Amino acid sequence: CPVTWLVERGYAVASIDYRPCSLAAFPAPLDDCREAVATLVRDAETWGIDAARICVVGRGSGGHLAALLALCDPPGKAAAGPEVTAACAVSAPTHLASLGPAHGRAASAAGRLVGGPLVELREVAQAASPLSHVSADDPPVLIVHGRRDAEVPVDQAVRLDQAVQRRAAPAQRRRMGLQALRQRVELGSAAQLRAHQVGRGPG
Question: Is there a cis peptide before residue 117, judged by omega within 30 degrees of 0?
């Protein structure tokens, strides 16, 4: 897990797994992540963690799922369903339909996620896009994206940030404009993250 250094800062860290889109299309990966969070909540006392203070962090496809966990209400939310209280999405696709022509093919990562060409599965693509789920009662989301990202356009982060700023009531979010941060910087480097004010200890 690339963020285990957070343990030294007083955080409990759990690394979760999910079915890749090569095995199961959306919403299976999101369902797996929700089940992982539910397990953490259920076993919180055993592990000595605070179930009311769960933050999810991910990069790329993991960041996409982290954003969905924070922004997309689970089915039957009124009756059940654990919620995260904060999220950090790093270099994450947030609106599949606007990723560009190369991402719309069935063989692309986005196409494999939804189970086919995006143009033929518009409703699924929308449901799989964090941007579609922004609302006023969302938890804080930290959006981190390199301006020179060659895989996921930085506009994906800008659009999500604008939606959050426009719709979310509390001003509990922060836009990250990292001009010199290269895409290949490892998230596990505590020194680099502290330099960019991403990693902070308990306040």
Answer: no
